[in-house]
Amino acid sequence: MRESMDSFAGDFSTLWTLNNRPPIQHLTWDWWWWLVMLDDDDHPMAGKQLMVLWSTKENDVVHINDVEWKPKGTPGFDEQGAIQVDGMVCAWWFDGSMMHDEIIAKVCDMIVLPSSHSSWPGQEGQGGGAVVPLTDKDCSMGMLPDRSQFWLNLNVDHEAIQSIRLTMKPWNEAMSTAREATATYLGSLGYDILRLHGTRCEGTIDGEDVNGTAYFQKVCVQAPSVPWYWGMLHFSDGSYIDWFLPHLSSTILSRDPKEWKRRDISHIAVSQGGLFHDAQRGRSERFKIVTVEKQRQENDLPRFSIQLKNGRTKIHINVRAVARAYWDFHQPTRGGIWSHLTYNEYPLEVESLMIEDEQGVRDESIYDWIRGNAEHSWGLLH
Question: Collapsing DSSP states into helix, strand and coil, what is residue 11?
Answer without folding.
Answer: coil
